[in-house]
Specification:
Amino acid/polyamine transporter I, symport, transmembrane, mainly alpha, 21 helices, 2 strands, membrane, 1% strand, 77% helix, two-stranded antiparallel sheet
Length: 453
């Protein structure tokens, strides 16, 4: 397989270059315009709905738990390693372009959540089934059934060989071994047993765990980063100025940093932002479809807060920590760069804090993607395929710590990109439906407000 690596790298570079980034950002811009800046105008309502949604309607889990499942998959190693990689290659300016990707991505995530609820259905067991494969087929028509199948097949491959398994398992076992000296096989066995116990229970089990871990790990990471930011509070204006200036002028070489162009900052910032919050990839709407709600637009609003929390808050804090501490132009890269930034305040326990954060982020990503892959398998092969899928997924977790074929990583990257294409086409094709549903919902909200007066 390694002999195909040069060809796979070329495909990966092309796919995640200008064409897909243009489609991703272009879709977000289109939806932002057609929805009249919904991610700005209605963000306060969206944030309020996280805990106040009525949860009355068909669905398997509450809107909050559906958001937690989606956040479980999106808040992962990309928030730590991905941001550091983007800043290392693209300079501080990459953070600005990450913000831009998230801003327009919020409109994309809103549309995904809305369509997921509008076109969801039930499986043979009476459980909710939804996501891009359903809104492609039911929204665009039966003639697009092959495109829906293509999306589902790509989602299964990503769950098995991409975001859902190997990168997360390796991140956990490597960081635990490095920080605490625990042998890889011990960590891997414990991780496999834990994943098996949770995922065999299905969505409700995953949602219950996610709803408990996600708030804790997000607050923990924010507090860790806030400590470093407060230590450098006087330098924040200069750091913001550097981020904005580097976004449009590039970054000169400094220390171990080779210098970057505006295009490098833009490409790395947007790509890493999308990898982190998954807006447009079509993963989050699979979880959104299971929410107990009668209003597709309401779940869309809740869904878009996922991108806000993931990138605007968590990724931004990582980026600011890297810039404020100067770790971005040191000799380290990836998780080691973030570790160096943490150690600037927390000294010897900085590495342990990073390991705990990384392990929690990676663990919840495995849970979220297990569910995404399961729903895709359900679409392709029916209920009978769910148990075999779960067993294969658990087996891949068990051997994931010992597989380091670079070609598998690159292939997973490619499949991840291919998963986004049919979803983005559907979002553009069904954007009129999204606008209509949004206007209908907002009019109901206005009428309700007038009646209360």
């Amino acid at each position: 397989m390694e002999s195909f690596l040069p060809m796979l790298n070329a495909i990966d570079s092309f796919l995640w270059g200008v064409p897909l980034i243009t489609l991703l950002v272009g879709t977000g811009i289109l939806l932002t315009v057609r929805l009249s800046l919904i991610q700005v105008v209605h963000l306060p309502r969206a944030l309020g709905l996280i805990l106040k949604a009525k949860n009355r309607g068909a669905g398997d889990i509450s809107s909050f738990k559906a958001l937690c499942v989606a956040l479980a998959a999106t808040i992962g190693t990309g928030n730590i390693v991905g941001v550091a990689t983007a800043v290392k290659v693209g300079g501080p300016g990459a953070i600005f372009w990450m913000w831009m990707a998230a801003f327009f991505g919020m409109a994309t995530k809103y549309a995904e959540g809305l369509l997921a609820v509008k076109y969801r259905t039930t499986d043979e067991r009476g459980e909710i089934a939804g996501g891009p494969m359903y809104y492609i087929r039911r929204g665009m028509g039966e003639k697009y059934r092959p495109m829906a199948g293509f999306f589902a097949a790509a989602a299964v491959l990503v769950a098995f060989f991409g975001i859902g398994t190997f990168p997360q398992v390796n991140a956990i076992v490597d960081s635990v071994e490095l920080s605490f000296g625990v042998p890889r096989i011990v960590t891997d066995l414990a991780l496999t047993a834990l994943i098996a116990a949770i995922t065999i229970g299905g969505l409700r089990s995953i949602a219950e765990v996610a709803s408990r871990i996600i708030p804790f790990m997000a607050v923990l990471y924010i507090v860790i980063c806030a400590g470093i930011i407060l230590m450098h509070i006087g330098e924040i204006p200069a750091a913001i100025a550097l981020i904005l200036d580097s976004a449009f002028t590039g970054t000169a070489a400094a220390g171990g940093f080779a210098g970057s162009t505006v295009m490098m900052a833009m490409q790395n910032g947007i790509a890493r932002g999308v990898f982190s919050n998954e807006s447009g990839l079509g993963s989050a709407p699979i979880a959104a479809a299971a929410a107990k709600t009668k209003e597709p637009a309401e779940q869309g609003l809740i869904s878009m807060t996922g991108t806000f929390i993931d990138t605007i808050i968590i990724c931004s804090m990582t980026g600011l920590v890297l810039v404020l501490t100067g770790a971005w132009h040191g000799d380290t890269a990836g998780a080691a760069m973030t570790g160096a930034a943490f150690s600037s305040l927390y000294s010897s326990i900085g590495g342990a804090l990073l390991t705990i954060s990384l392990a929690l982020f990676a663990f919840t990503t495995i849970l979220g993607w297990n569910y995404y892959g399961e729903r895709a398998v359900l679409y392709l092969a029916g209920v009978r395929a769910i148990l075999p899928y779960r067993l294969v997924f658990i087996a891949l977790i068990a051997c994931g710590a010992f597989l380091k074929l670079e070609a598998i990583w690159v292939l997973a990257d490619i499949v991840n990109g291919l998963m986004a294409i049919p979803n983005l086409i559907a979002l553009i094709a069904l954007s009129g439906i999204v606008v209509h549903e949004t206007r209908h919902y907002l009019e109901k909200v206005r009428r309700g407000a007038r009646m209360r007066k």
